[in-house]
Amino acid sequence: MFYKSTRNSNLKVTSAQAISQGISEDGGLFVPESIPSLTLEEVEKIGKMSYSERAAYVFTKFLTDFTEAEIRYCTDNAYSTKNFETENIAEIAHLFDGTYMLELWHGPTCAFKDMALQILPYFLTTSAKKLNIDKKIVILVATSGDTGKAALEGFKDVEGTQIMVFYPENGVSSMQKRQMTTQEGQNVGVCAVKGNFDDCQSGVKKIFTDETVKKALADNKLMFSSANSINWGRLVPQVVYYISAYATLVSDEQIKLGDKINVVVPTGNFGNILAAYYAKRMGLPIAKLICASNINNVLTDFINTGVYDRNRKFYATCSPSMDILISSNLERLLYILTGDNDAQIKEWFGALAKDGKYEVSADVKAKIKEDFYAGFCDDNGTKETIKSIYDKYSYVCDTHTAVAVKVYEDYRRETKDETRTIIASTASPYKFSASVLEAICPDYKADDEYALVDKINELSDISIPDALADLKNKPVRFTGSIDRAEMSDFVMKTLGIR
After folding, report:
1. Can you tell me the distance from the alpha carbon of 490 to that of 488, in angstroms, rounded to the nearest whole number?
2. Do 204 and 166 touch, CB atoms closer than 8 A?
3. Which domains does the chain have, with CATH numbers?
4. CB burial string 342-358: b at 16+ within 10 A, e below
5. How far is CA 447 from the centre of its chain?
6. β-strand partners of 221
7. Interval 202-223: pLDDT, tens
8. Using CA atoms, how far apart are residues 171 and 299, in angstroms rounded to an integer?
9. Fewer CB within 10 A of the terminal residue: the chain, N end or C end?
10. CA-CA distances (angstroms) from residue 409 to 147, 300, 495?
């Protein structure tokens, strides 16, 4: 299995090269040259495995230059009760008849990013050894909240690596900020950026492709890589949990082998729902992929019209991890749907960079509509949904998961589709305690973050994760704030090059 760049189909690298490099030198994203198949018999077989074994089984289809022993080393170390508070790793809660919450937040940072970022350091260091890379790997991360902490925790004190995380100064929850700014580890750095997530993301991409910066790194035996979902090593672990969830529903006799399901994903950067799309293309019986956005609904408009237009007002919402107007992983989907047409991808994304807008062809629009449904939800709708779910089912969900539930309710009402459905629950409600409590108990007031956490604990049967409880007494290590134009200088100074 080789990997191509979405902007140069003639470029072919191994999975180890794709993972260690993170992004193609031409600015494109690495994609597998073909999507491997998965039979129903294999799905049934997967249902009898542990999560670590399930992951290893899927990875052997994509990471063919890794040995079986290398893959098992990665999965056994990443997916264990040492890192996750539950043996199942990805729990499934039955919300109501025929609807299931896929709880992806039982890892060390209480968000779905742990599912990938616990294993990415093993992928990356294993890849470096395979390729005989003798350089220190510098990982740059732009985060809208959850990726940053998950990456910091995953790469903390990993030999041969250094990691720097950039987050929007006023674009994350107070708990997310505290998770990052108190991060331990000798090889970690965190900095706020005066702007939004798109400013952070475009700033990191610019650094990646800056020839002067790359030469300076090479001269100092350093190299860049990424822990964002632009890195294939971040995306492929997310494919696993959709396959795993389906296999679990079959083994639990909730569905029959071969029954189709819908999948609902709250998404901003399009990586999490793209992983479900890859699972579908492999052969997993998925009917509709339901893309849920908050009021920054650029993806909703795109899926419904075929026009991607980031020239719009940006909103800071109570679901900040979705406050994104440039969805990087959409490039991978469009590359597939155009038949690997790299020239077309370069044209569209060149227009996005220049004018902030592009429109896909009629045949691509039609293909998108076949697989995807899109809707959005504002903050009022988000909080009303949190309250409704709590009142009906005594279930507390976070603000991002509530967006997904609301969009799914709209979908069912509009289509009358009663297909059994998995909703990706992406974060613990404790990470967004102020907004969650405002929804459930609007009269409850407290200035202290941990008073809010204690109140949610009182209202629910969800225990407070140790990883969040322990933050209360940790000292803040990182307080810096810079303009987007200063990001490159920050990186170079941190590395001691300037």
Report:
1. 5
2. yes
3. 91-110+233-464 (3.40.50.1100)
4. bebbbebbeebeeeeeb
5. 30
6. none
7. 999 899 888 999 899 999 999 9
8. 19
9. C
10. 28, 16, 49
Burial of 330 (0-12, 13-18, 19+ CB in 10 A): buried
Amino acid at 301: D
- Rounded to the nearest 10 degrees, the angle between the axes of helix 232-251 and helix 51-62 is 130
What is the token pair recorded at 362? 């009629």
Contact between 247 and 47 (Cβ < 8 Å): yes
Sorted by sequence, the CB contacts under 8 Å of residue 470 that are 6+ apart come out as none
The interaxial angle of helices 330-337 and 362-371, nearest 10 deg, is: 110
Residue 389 to residue 186: CA distance in whole angstroms: 42
Could you tell me what percent of the chain has a pLDDT over 90?
A: 88
Quote the radius of gyration of the chain (alpha carbons, Å): 21
Contacts of 164 (CB under 8 A, 6+ apart): 138, 139, 140, 141, 188, 189, 190, 191, 490, 491, 494
Give the integer Cα–Cα distance in Å for 30 and 175. Answer: 33
Please check whether residue 85 is in contact with residue 118, taking contact to mean a CB–CB distance below 8 angstroms. Answer: no
Are 374 and 293 a contacting pair, CB within 8 Å? yes
Give 124-149 pLDDT, tens digit per residue.
Answer: 999 999 999 999 999 999 998 888 99
Question: How far is it, in rounded angstroms, from Cα 260 to Cα 123?
Answer: 32
- The β-bridge relationship of strands 99-103 and 91-96 is antiparallel
- Give the span between the Cα atoms of 314 and 324, in whole angstroms: 8
Tell me: the pLDDT tens digits for 445-497?
888 888 999 999 998 878 898 889 889 889 999 998 999 999 999 999 999 98
Q: Are 173 and 438 in contact (CB under 8 A)?
A: no
| Cα pseudo-dihedral 406, 411, 413, 414, rounded to 10 | 140
Single-letter amino acid, residue 173: S
